[in-house]
Specification:
Radius of gyration: 20 Å
CATH topology: DHBP synthase
Number of helices: 9
Largest sheet: 14 strands, mixed
Strand content: 15-25%
Order of helices and strands: HEEEHEEEHHEEHEHEHEEEHEH
Shape: globular
Helix content: 25-40%
Oligomer: single chain
CATH architecture: Alpha-Beta Complex
CATH class: Alpha Beta
Number of strands: 14
CATH superfamily: DHBP synthase
Distance between the termini: 35 Å
Length: about 350
């Protein structure tokens, strides 16, 4: 019954040990009676789930491959299910993903993984074309509006990262839940420094440049008519994220399984970025003309600003945090690893266009 998913973990010597546990096993999905109509290459992570009393039941969790075309529609369907939360590998780590209705005011699904500190809101996973519709460009410093004025400009900001959080002002009366919106009073509750303070409502808009994941996100929009996708690193508050698939298994062994599906990435997971991401904001009207870094991370800001051809510098604001990263990668310049991930994606895209 045990089968090792191809490319699930780059370290082949660790595979047998990592997948051998009394708490779970991995099997081909079509071998399970409830998943016989699933496409080739979908696997199941089957684990013991505690029920009432001392009873347990076998719970199957599908594992999809983001690089397989016939998996993407199913991934989009799961993304849009309001009663589910999944984990997806995005560039440097596994993140938890879940849908939030526009009318929702509480972050119930997200709290399955971790409770956020007071005043801290969930990042929104949003396509550049949709972000362009909700950004309040009028609140941004005149010299920086060019980077946010349309879909292509915003896509350029992400592509040159190629994964980053953009902290941007958001228009009033959008269909975005307050779960995502940080209001000035939230920053007061959070105890933010004066330099971290933002005078208008903002969102942390996360996206990573990847045509395959963009296709999945576009499909998700078709199913998700009245909400948006939240995304956050998959870990308990104060603990290290799950960098690789084997870290998800370690999490299950310690905490059980709070997620309903997995989206792994055999292409990028083999590139050891091992970090969460930079948070950067443009200046607002009346502020100094420089980018504001609210969280440092794997993207080297000076090199990033060169790539987007910015004439302005940046400032790491007082109270800025450091993105979580693997212990063995602390102090290392990970910008080249981020660009290697981008190169892998672009090479794949070119190959598909040729074929």
């Amino acid at each position: 019954m045990y089968e090792t998913p191809p490319n699930m973990m780059p370290d082949q010597e660790d595979q047998e040990q990592a997948y051998n546990s009394p708490q779970y096993y991995i099997m081909d999905a079509v071998s399970h009676p409830d998943f016989q109509d699933y496409p080739e290459g979908v696997h199941l992570l089957v684990f013991d789930k505690s029920c009432e009393g001392n009873e347990t039941q076998r719970q199957p969790v599908p594992i999809f491959d983001a690089r397989k075309e016939d998996h993407r529609g199913l991934i989009a369907q799961h993304y849009s299910k309001y009663d589910e939360m999944g984990v997806v590998h995005g560039v440097g780590l596994y993140g938890a993903v879940w849908p939030v209705r526009s009318s929702d005011t509480t972050n119930v699904a997200g709290e399955r993984v971790k409770e956020k500190p007071p005043g801290e809101k969930a990042p929104i996973y949003i396509l550049p074309e949709d972000l362009a519709k909700v950004i309040d460009v009028e609140q941004i410093h005149d010299d920086f509006r060019q980077y946010f004025e349309n879909e292509q400009a915003i896509k350029g900001l992400y592509k040159n990262a190629p994964a980053i959080h953009l902290i941007v002002p958001v228009k009033e009366n959008t269909d975005i839940s307050s779960v995502f919106i940080t209001y000035p009073e939230d920053l007061v509750k959070k105890g933010a420094s004066e330099e971290q303070h933002l005078s208008v409502p903002t969102i942390s808009a996360f996206y990573w440049y990847d045509p395959d994941h963009e296709r999945i996100a576009a499909m998700t929009k078709e199913y998700l008519q009245d909400g948006n996708i939240a995304i956050s690193s998959f870990n308990k508050h104060g603990e290290q994220p799950a960098w690789e698939f084997k870290d998800l298994l370690k999490y299950i062994e310690a905490n059980g399984c709070p997620f309903d599906y997995v989206v792994h990435d055999p292409l990028i997971e083999q590139i050891s970025v091992g970090s969460s991401f930079v948070q950067i904001a443009p200046p607002l009207k009346g502020e100094d003309a420089c980018w504001k870094v609210h969280r440092t991370g794997p993207t080297a800001i000076d090199k990033y600003l060169e790539r987007i051809q910015s004439e302005h510098g940046y400032k790491v604001v007082e109270g800025a945090t450091e993105a979580a990263r693997k212990d063995e990668l602390r102090g290392q310049d990970l910008d080249s690893a981020m660009l290697a991930a981008l190169d892998a994606v672009l090479s794949r895209q070119q190959q598909e266009e040729v074929e």
